[in-house]
Write a structure and sequence with these properties.
The two termini are 40 Å apart. The protein contains 23 helices and 5 strands. Helix 4 runs parallel beside helix 5 (101-117), helix 11 runs antiparallel to helix 12 (255-283) and helix 12 (255-283) crosses helix 17 (371-382). It is mainly alpha-helical and 508 residues long. It has helices at 16-22, 35-38, 45-65, 76-86, 101-117, 139-147, 189-201, 207-210, 217-220, 225-230, 235-252, 255-283, 306-313, 320-332, 337-350, 356-365, 371-382, 395-402, 407-412, 432-438, 453-468, 471-484, 491-494; strands at 2-6, 27-33, 70-73, 91-95, 121-124.
């Protein structure tokens, strides 16, 4: 008997553990709803809602193969111990997971249990992430090798008698906070395949031109990030489908195809960076909690200014585009990469908040939350990596650049709907008489900016640059670059490097 333990790989297509386990005997496909995981501060109700839809889809797909998904509620160690005691389990199979610290500790506990039981645990690679010692100089080559492998076909599964499938609860734990997300995209394999097809065949033609603006990104971006995060699509099948489409377009030699090829080249570059960021957390799990560059650890108080934090969380900073983006994110569970970067940048620089609490808030809001990507990128936008150029977003400039006529702002900040285009980006500068005439008195109907964003940005830059100047900080930066920096990107990929682009690849 083989157990295939599903985690963030909720599919039957291109699933190596399922494929190989089926070659060894009957399979128990298992998903464990772990109460401890759902008590963590980075997990939310919208995650569960999306995940539950994925599990329903997975159960249907497995049933068509011959054996339905077995669902158990409880912590992984006792659940696995019980199954191994009740059934003649020869091996446990799963994909490697680069999750939060809780999942890291859980996997270590499971490894100890299975060693004690004398049961092998086979963990396959799902991403280009390398576990254990590795050569960063050869990282890109091994990524290409893994992504170029043939995909694993779904196997036939003999039915396993004597094991109840278990039910999918409406909530994983009773204490999970209610988290309505009415604009959330649906989960499941069918939704993933539809999103991939529509992006490659229809929506993606202007990806490289329209991915930065919140007005156009929701349709022009791939919208695959949630499916990649929860594993309803594999990175390999996504990359291979993208390259197949690029080949088709190249063969056509038509003008529209030129735009398509540029768009898909940009998208493929972001897929590459997906695993690059995950590798950082895999190699150093402390990045979930500690500054990557320790020399910057004392810059900000980890106990954030709660007034500023709450204003940022609720979309009431007084900067219209920032507030519109946060409110949009609360409603939909997704926003594009540039606006993610701006939200984190404003929290870290203008509001001078320690990155940890804002990162947790965004983690709970992002339906596509991927811990291995999220925390290194949160730190990158906060200036604590020691190796990335400081990217301090000007909220007014971004507003003018990405929503020049204020359509997005008026949609999500209806308090400002009657304001003229001339004032929509800086309503606090509007004359008092005009404020009264438009029915939006700043400080009453809509907040004034929490700080002078330009002065706060200058002060933040000076503080961080000063912390980076010491000999110890420079030495530490060299060490960080050696362990985690990218290696000689090609000319094409250089345009998509993390030092020069925004938060990537979440929100693609």
């Amino acid at each position: 008997m083989q157990i295939v333990w599903f985690k963030r790989d909720l599919r039957v297509c291109d699933h190596e553990p399922l494929h190989r386990a089926a070659q060894c005997g009957p399979v128990i496909p298992l998903y464990i709803i772990e109460p401890g995981l759902w008590r963590q501060p980075d997990m939310s109700g919208r995650h569960w809602s999306f995940l539950r839809e994925c599990l329903i889809s997975l159960r249907e797909d497995l049933a068509r193969l011959g054996q339905t998904l077995v669902v158990r509620q409880g912590e992984a160690v006792p659940v696995l111990k019980s199954l191994c005691n009740q059934h003649p389990v020869a091996s446990v199979w799963s994909h490697q997971e680069t999750g939060n610290a809780w999942t890291y500790r859980r996997d270590r506990a499971v490894a100890r249990l299975l060693r004690h039981q004398g049961i092998p645990w086979h963990q396959a690679r799902q991403h280009g992430v390398v576990r254990g010692p590795f050569d960063r100089d050869g990282w890109s080559r091994q990524w290409e090798t893994l992504m170029g492998m043939p995909r694993f076909a779904p196997p036939r599964l003999p039915s396993v008698a004597g094991i109840a499938p278990g039910t999918l609860p409406t909530q994983p734990i009773a204490a999970l906070a209610r988290d309505p997300c009415p604009g959330r995209q649906p989960g499941g394999r069918q939704a993933a395949e539809q999103a991939l097809h529509s992006f490659l065949q229809q929506r993606g033609a202007r990806y490289h031109l329209e991915m930065s603006s919140p007005r156009t990104a929701s349709s022009s971006c791939s919208r695959l990030s949630a499916h990649l995060a929860w594993g309803t699509l594999s990175m390999r099948e996504t990359l291979q489908a993208t390259r197949q489409r690029r080949t088709e377009l190249k063969q056509r030699r038509q003008a529209p195809g030129d735009s398509w090829r540029r768009a898909l080249a940009a998208f493929e570059g972001r897929l590459h960076w997906h695993c690059h960021f995950m590798q950082k957390l895999e190699s150093e799990p402390r990045f979930e909690f500690e500054n990557m560059q320790r020399a910057t650890s004392d810059l900000r108080d980890p106990y954030c200014d709660r007034v500023r934090l709450r204003a940022w969380q609720t979309g009431n900073t007084g900067w219209p585009l920032v507030d519109a983006c946060m409110r949009n994110l609360v409603h939909t569970g997704w926003i594009n990469f540039r606006m993610r970067a701006m939200l984190m940048s404003v929290a870290s620089y203008q509001l001078w908040l320690h990155w940890r609490e804002p990162a947790l808030h965004l983690a709970r809001l992002f339906v596509d939350y991927e811990p291995g990507i999220h925390y290194p990128q949160a730190q990158m936008q906060s200036g604590t990596t020691g190796i990335n150029t400081l990217r301090i977003y000007n909220p007014v400039k971004q507003s003018l650049d990405q929503d020049s006529d204020g359509v997005f702002i008026r949609t999500w900040v209806p308090e400002l709907s009657r304001i003229d285009d001339a004032w929509i980006h800086t309503p606090w500068q509007m004359p008092a008489e005009m404020q009264r005439d438009r029915g939006v008195v700043i400080g009453r109907d809509y907040p004034a900016p929490l700080v002078d964003h330009e002065a706060a940005a200058r002060q933040a830059r000076q503080r961080i640059q000063q912390a980076r100047r010491s000999a110890d900080a420079r030495s530490e930066s060299r060490d960080i670059q050696a362990r985690h920096g990218s290696r000689k990107p090609t000319r094409r990929r250089r345009r998509h490097s993390p030092a020069q682009s925004d938060l990537s690849p979440d929100g693609t």
